Amino acid sequence: MADNVTELTDGNFQSEVLDSQGPVLVDFWAPWCGPCRMIAPMVEELAQEYKGAVKIGKINIDDSPGAATQYGVSSIPTLMIFKGGEVVDRFVGVQPKSRLAAALDAAKE
Fold first, then answer.
1. Exposure b/e, 38-61, CB count within 10 A at least 16 = b
2. What pLDDT, in 10s, does the model give residues 23-35?
3. Domain membership of residue 76 as a residue range
4. pTM given for the model
């Protein structure tokens, strides 16, 4: 996992995502998911580009199913943007980088 991408678990989800001061993009994924592997480089690029402005994290739903269940993740990849402990945006499936960047820009304001 890239240096700028936080590895999330059910154990640190509260502190890393819900209690975060700024916006957080969470990538719900699993190692066996082809589309998840397809978007991984894009998620890492966003982490680099938004370093210091938006936290980017990935949570493996096989290892940490609790958060995925809590937020109704039924298919992956699912990407959610949290702000102030609430989901402000949600994307299911592979998304264009520009769409995610626009959502992150909106969340920063």
1. ebbebbbbbbeebeeebbbbbbbb
2. 999 999 999 999 9
3. 5-108
4. 0.95
